[in-house]
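REVIEWER CHECKLIST
Item 1: Sequence provided? yes
Item 2: Single chain? yes
Item 3: Sequence as submitted:
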Amino acid sequence: MVHYTIHPKGQGKQKQYPPTASFSYVLILDKNGRVFYIFIMLRLSTKGQYGVRAMFEIARGYPENPVTIKEIYERQDVSVAYLEQILNKLRKAGIVRSVKGPGGGYLLAKEPGHITIAEILKELEGPVAITSCLDPEEGCSRVEGCVTHLLWRSLGAKIEAFLETITLKDLLEKEPVLKGVDHDDSLYRFDVA
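Item 4: Structure as written out by the authors:
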């Protein structure tokens, strides 16, 4: 993913910004180079998306039915090699545990209601850093005098807080909706406060 600064009516040069882990944005600048408008889209990497999908499948087997990588692959269409990388990272973090031998596979290390989507994504993606100035590895020399830094930090905190409210148990409870068992529209969404 690449980020561009777009100048109105072809004024100025296009500038390329490094990609962020989770967001893409477009800055539209006025003829003096000041930010005129900003569009932001949340976009998780495949590692985050596949990690949550794999954890959902493992949660379906909780508490005593280990789920194999092959089963996750068949249900979620995620490559086995990629699943191995993702699950190894989650195992090292203590979110899942592996069971060896016949009938083995992966189990949740704790109840589905105690594993948040934020916990999974933090392990796989790192902290929510919607701009490079919030990324501890990149930082920004303008942070002290930048009013938008506070805006991005606040937005990131709201996203993280929302993801802390959704657990694997919540996803399991939404599963009947996906199978057409219940058509109550309120079950199709997660509300953001």
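Item 5: Key structural point noted by reviewer: Confidence is low (pLDDT under 50) at residues 1-23.
Item 6: Recommendation: ____
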